[in-house]
Amino acid sequence: MLPARRLPNARAPFPARTLPRAICLALSLFAGAALAEAQTAPSIPAGPLAHALSTFAERAGITLSFSPEAVRGLNSPGLAGGGSVQDGLTALLSGSGLAVHKTASGYVVLPAATDAGLQLEPTNIDANAAQSAFAPVSGYYASNASSATKTDRPILETAQSISVVTAEQIADRKVDRVEDAVAYTAGVRVGSSGLDPRFDMISVRGFETTIAADFLDGLRQPGSGWLSLYQTEAYNLERIEVLKGPASVLYGQISPGGMVNRVSKRPSLEAKNEVQIQSGNYNREQGQFDLGGRLDAEGDLLFRVVGVYRDAENYIEQLNNDVRLIAPSLTWQIDPDTRLTVLAQYQERETAGSPMLYKDGDHLTNFWQGDEYFDKLEQRQWTLGYEFEHVFNDTFTFQQNLRYGQIDTTNQYLEPSEAGDGHTLDRYAVGIYEHLESVSTDTRLVSRFATGDLQHTLVTGWDYAMIDTSLLYAWGAGPSIDRYAPDYHQFVARPSDALADQDGLEHRSGLYLQDQIEIDRWRLSAGLRRDWVHVRRSDNMNSSNNRKDSDSATTGSVGALYLFDNGVAPYASYATSFLPQSSAKPDGSPYKAIEGEQYEVGVKYQPPGSSTLLTASLYHLTQQNVLTRDLADATRSIATGEQVSRGLELEAVSDLNDRLKMTASYSYNKAEVTKNNDGNTGKAPMNVPRHLASLWLDYRLPFGLGVSGGARYTGSNYGDAQNTEKNEGYTLVDAGVHYDFGGGLDGVRLGFNARNLFDKRYINCQQGYCYRGEARSLVTSLSYRW
């Protein structure tokens, strides 16, 4: 059995690569590219005006603002496509008594009698923006999301709890990892094993999402083996959507706590070009760029390319933080009804896990048992995929997304065995070598039609994922080390004695349908899904251990929301989930899959004419078939355990005005083991804090100066199942200051950011292992946007 998150780490030389030259070449080629203002208007079918405007904004990649009250009950004649964006919007509004006006922040729909020269306050312009869930968003407030419905739908009108972390939030906090980007989100706990950059440690409502709920652009990023997990640089994301509660009805085998959907940056005429350099403590040097625009005069071909080059360490001396990334994408508007977007990514990184803290009597020490040239985690990954859409007519739209990817992982470390004389530590070398190939695809038909007074958006589809893995786990002799006079540069031979040599092949698929229904002010939803999973494991050292497993399940969801005139939207929902167990019984047969069930009620509030969304939710979430001891045989486990989370979440996201932006959250989660044969019934699950809270503000002062700051509180939690070992709560403070140059240097920003400003030192222990949290990090940045 592999130890959990125990990798020590080292500063090993990063091999010479050609990627930095490619980044420099891309910078020289595209540094002069500017965004075009003109774009051909897309084809839009006739139908409800609100939906027509939202679809137009998504396909044209623009920010479009309108009042839901102004368009309620109105229909649009549709649009054949072609012409300018302004002309297209005018055609959509024909006969409605409304007109469109171009502003510095995008387009705004107003009564036709309104003076075209009226200058609106920025708060009003963004208030009810028909933003796309895939295009850039200005500020912290996002009106739409796609994760809950697989369509571009207003969050205010969705009967589920959804949080969005926009690219501007990521940029203002200067975070590299998705884990750090979602740290201010309600219901989300990060860093349960201290600083461990090998993967994102994210829990939603008390349940881990690291492997079971890792999604990119709505497609599963499958993980297997031990460390074959796709990694995503936060700078390459347009947004991160956190969907809370069971989501199997649309995504299949998933954690009951929810999912984290990373949305890639993709071509858009609304995106700004940027080139940025960074420097910081722990020898941090970083360069990154985000460039895009038109490739033809008509705007039918758009491109975007994102690149990152980082050479850095962490406050733990032997832990690297090196990344090389390039992510190009291309969108082709084949005709007014057909669009294809191709997304690719190549990434190299070197890092390692956080070292365990060793005890010297009753005190924890910072001794590290590894070797700087041997201990490492090196990973190379690449992905290539597409998103295709064809509009057949006013009713049917066909969509298909597909992505292929590969990961190669080398993970080496030295493990202590025993100390012969009290200060000399004997060690052995461990090597884990993994290869993963995956295919993820989602094919769906979106049908928009009416039955009487009911307006339907019916999504029917089939998704599939294939994961092909190979794992070699070996060990060998290692040199000893003196705990009080360590030598971190000894010769270590590559491990040669195989402990495990395995291959695996998984097929996951599901058929689903979900109907979103609008009737007057009601927003109703219902969905159903059937899942299948087939797993084959091959033991190359012992063929008798080969196994084939299959499982299937049916999951569903229902929801109801009522939209009041004053922006208040109460809702209620019910959903179930399904997640096969990764371990097997002693006879090789699989344990029964984990099942999740959630009841949720809540209320959302968007004050009319504001870019503010307030959300409050209450939930009762149950996870069944948790492994527990078999009373008939204490050496075995059975899937009869149960865990319940009952909680309250409060969240506020607001662009209060053109100078002040804010996010705030509070979460209360009373998690409890309700069925268990190990004597832990009534105990709290490990690593589930009862309280989480956060606040972040960014304020732009006159004359280009801006300040930002925030605090994140993680409450106390237990590090063992018996609740005898308690991790104390802690608060981390982050801060930043930035200055925007004007005049001839318009678009240039100088920034300084500090994470864990007061260098709060904290540890988190679990099952006898203790890990250090992240110390203070400082980043100075200089960027140019145009």
From TrEMBL:
Single biological process term from Gene Ontology: nickel cation transport
Main localization, broad class: membrane
A cellular-component GO term for this protein: cell outer membrane
CDD domains on file: ligand_gated_channel (cd01347)
Keywords recorded for this protein, A-Z: Cell outer membrane, Ion transport, Iron, Iron transport, Membrane, Nickel, Nickel transport, Receptor, Signal, TonB box, Transmembrane, Transmembrane beta strand, Transport, Zinc, Zinc transport
Topological type in the membrane: Multi-pass membrane protein
NCBIfam families given in the database record: TonB-siderophor (TIGR01783)
Name the UniProt record assigns to this protein: Metal-pseudopaline receptor CntO
